[in-house]
Fold this sequence. Notes:
The protein is an alpha/beta fold. It has two domains: about 10-20 and about 95-220, HAD superfamily/HAD-like (Rossmann fold, 3-Layer(aba) Sandwich), CATH 3.40.50.1000; about 25-90, Up-down Bundle (de novo design (two linked rop proteins)), CATH 1.20.1440. It contains ten helices and seven strands. The protein has helices at about 25-35, 40-55, 60-65, 70-75, 75-90, 95-110, 120-130, 160-175, 190-195, 205-215; strands spanning about 10, 110-120, 135-145, 145-155, 180-185, 200, 220. It has a seven-stranded mixed beta sheet. Helix 10 (about 205-215) links the parallel strand 6 and strand 7 (about 220). The radius of gyration is 17 Å and the shape is globular.
Amino acid sequence: MSHICTMALALFDLDNTLIAGDSDHGWGEFLVAQNRVDPAYYKRMNDQFYRDYQNGRLDMNAYLEFALQPLAQLPAEELARLHRLFMEEVIAPLWLPRAAQLLQQHRERGDTLIVITSTTRFVVEPISDKLGTDVLIATEPELIDGRYTGKVAGVPSYREGKVVRLNAWLAETGQSLAGSCFYSDSINDLPLLEIVDRPVAVDPCEQLREEAQRRGWEIISLRD
């Protein structure tokens, strides 16, 4: 397959790229269904933030203040129990066999598989582990003494923040972007798509599809 780069960093967005849905929005819906948050208010806000994200105008700080509150309010054991159920009920149906095949092709070439996502590590780490990737760069919720504080630690890996966080990881590990590729569905990932050697639009949103066509970037689908 021509879009596989060789012996390099293979970067992947997660939501709506490697899985057929948005884990962040899905976690919010799951909390509503489990009655762990104020249902009407939480659903309204969760849906509005998701629309803002899709339209490329999310206020990330406002969103994180909203999304991290339940993590701060629930004990660690309860969060772990809820997440196991979330993986079974919400994430399992979003699995894409073709995404697993794409990851395997990169793995066989010796590439380093990196999921880089704006979603919090709490939500995505078990998903990234299940996908068998090597590295996860995600928005980090602050943890103190084993409890989430409701605040963010460091720079959220969103839009330009993905580039900031990736550059920090490159500096730390001595890796380079030579021969790198990045797969994403979202116009929000334009800053990172612009700096890799091989940008690939995966089942892209309308704005990214137009941008990819204009720039001559590859467009693929991992959906059946």
